[in-house]
Structure formats: C-alpha cells, structure tokens
Amino acid sequence: MELLLFVKKEDYMKMNDILLKDDIVSRASVDFKDAKILGIKKEGFYCLISGLEIAYNKAKELASGKAEVVEGKEKEEVLKKIKEEKDAALAGFGGVMEF
User: What is the pTM of this model?
Assistant: First the structure.
C-alpha cells in the first residue's frame, strides 16, 4: 500500500522524526521529496510511505493533524514524478555500470 502525505516545510523535521522513530512505520519505505524539486509549486515536502497495511494505517494515524493526506489527481501526478525521477536515476546508474 502507498500513502502520500504533504508536509509543510516547517513541519518536515518533526514528521520525519515521528515516522522514522515509530517501530512499525520505520519498517516500511519512507521517502521524502521536496515539492519544488518535483516541479510542484508548493512549499514543503511529499512523503511517500510504501509497505504493509499496518504501516499505512499507523503512518496515517501519526500524521493526523500534522500532515495532509494527498489523494486523487494530485497523488497521481506526484507519484508519476517520483517514478520518473527514480527511473532517470536508475538509467544514469546503469550507464555507469557499463564501464
């Protein structure tokens, strides 16, 4: 399951700490991306949490009132941009491995 959160810039460190110190959520993949680096005109960070349903539910609970759950068209757009970024990084890494 994938949960996408938007965290305001000033709350980034606090949310990062909360999510990564939790025993359940820290076992999932937790990835923060600066919105501006993704080409989105928002001040803050997107947090993608991928893992089991228990981690999804716990992260959603921990983020309640501290971060915004992103859904719908915005979620699709952000996930597409994150995937493109990862693919570009892997393609670059593959080029290095050829030597």
Answer: 0.87
